[in-house]
Write a structure and sequence with these properties.
50% of the residues lie in helices and 8% in strands. The chain has three domains: 33 residues, no CATH class; 105 residues, no CATH class; 149 residues, NADH Oxidase, CATH 3.40.109.10. A four-stranded antiparallel beta sheet has the order 1-2-4-3, sandwiched between helices. The protein is of the alpha+beta class and 353 residues long. Bound molecules: flavin mononucleotide (FMN). The site of flavin mononucleotide has 12 residues, from strand 3.
């Protein structure tokens, strides 16, 4: 029976491929035809559509119900204020379209204040930037005056160190130079064979501390790292993706980079979880490597059955998406790595093209 189904499938693919190629050539002519193709001929984008819609819905839900969810709006708007503050020349009136909403978001975040340190860091950042904003803007403007008065009635967050725009101290030289970074880049390879010892969680946390310092659009940081370091869990999670076949059983640990689409109100930003998540992942991989921990990115394929399985295993909401998996461990010196010749500078670089 199995052999019969396999044969049938093979015959179907032989017939389907030329038809599909013809449909692709028609669908590629316009975005409308492309949409028809992805409605009737392929459902490959359906999970992404669902997650983007669920994310937008959650964004609006969080706005209305505030709580810690309002931190997305707060983080974005505080970032926008900081850009206004560092503008040269700095205007006396700016951000009037969103300053009051930002103060209200700060108020909501204060009242929903949870004990997570990162969140209290966000609150202090919001407080200090708002203070800086009101100290330089023109309170002759009705919106600024109303927002400032409202802000000054809210609890203040103290501390000597101010979380607001500053001039970097560029006087000293870095302890890392180009040669050091190049050496690290050459040392890092995708490593698939590891020593069978547990990886220090302290080292992992140190690497994630570096990853958290990566750039992210409007500083929203719409990702998290889910780490698994018990043997059953590691294999179970790693094998959900397809790219770790044959070596997942020797992973001491695996992490899943999860993006959160509820950070955005518009579809135009739907790629940011992948961009921000990948930038953070690269920093993380280097931070692991300098501590003697090797790693390998494992592709997350967008296949509906796989999506369902990982969502169940990680207990993810519809708006949360897996960006990639990363295996990690102390390298087994006896295990080889592929040569992986890179493209030459001339192939990947151009100026003023
Ligand atoms: C997005 C992404 C997905 C990847 N997926 C896999 C994978 O599923 N399985 C695997 O063994 N390696 C995977 N890799 C590792 C690549 O094969 C590897 O980075 C590439 O061959 C270059 O080798 P290097 O990392 O040693 O320079 C992936 C890398 C990236 C960036």
């Amino acid at each position: 029976m199995k052999a019969f189904i396999k044969k049938l499938l093979a015959v179907f693919l032989v017939i389907w491929h030329p038809i599909d190629r013809l449909l692709l050539s028609i669908a590629s002519r316009s975005s409308f035809l492309s949409s028809l193709y992805y409605t009737f001929c392929s459902r490959c984008f359906s999970k992404e559509h669902q997650s983007v819609i669920a994310g937008r819905l959650k964004y609006y839900y969080n706005l209305k119900n505030n709580g810690s969810g309002s931190s997305v709006l707060l983080r974005r708007n505080i970032h926008r204020l900081e850009k206004g503050i560092i503008m040269r020349p700095c205007r006396r009136v700016f951000a009037t379209g969103y300053i009051f909403d930002t103060v209200k978001a700060y108020e909501s975040a204060l009242s929903a204040h949870d004990s997570r340190e990162s969140f209290s860091g966000t609150l202090k950042w919001a407080h200090d930037v708002l203070s800086a904003y009101f100290s330089i803007t023109d309170d002759g403007h009705a919106v600024i005056r109303r927002s400032r008065d409202y802000f000054h009635r809210l609890p203040s967050i103290g501390g000597d160190h101010l979380f607001r725009p500053y001039h970097r101290d560029l006087s000293g030289s870095l302890s890392i130079d180009y040669a050091g970074l190049l050496e690290l880049s050459k040392r890092r390879r995708s490593v698939r064979w590891y020593r069978q010892v547990a990886v220090s969680r302290e080292q992992i946390d140190q690497a994630i501390t570096v990853a958290a310092l990566s750039p992210s659009a409007c500083n929203r940081q719409p990702f998290e790292f889910r780490i698994y370091d018990t043997p059953e869990k590691v294999v179970d999670i790693a094998d959900t993706a397809m790219g770790a076949k044959g070596f997942s059983q020797n992973f001491p640990g695996i992490m899943v980079v999860v993006g959160d689409l509820s950070a955005y109100f518009h579809e135009r930003d739907r790629h940011l979880i992948y961009i921000d998540g990948a930038l953070a992942a690269m920093s993380l991989v280097y931070a692991l490597e300098v501590q003697g921990i090797s790693s390998c990115i494992i592709n997350w394929p967008e296949i509906p059955s796989k999506e369902r399985a990982i969502k169940r295993k990680l207990n993810l909401n519809p708006e949360q998406r897996v960006i990639m998996l990363i295996s990690f461990g102390y390298p087994d010196a006896k295990g080889m790595v592929p040569y992986s010749q890179k493209k030459s500078l001339n192939h990947i670089r151009s100026y003023n093209k």
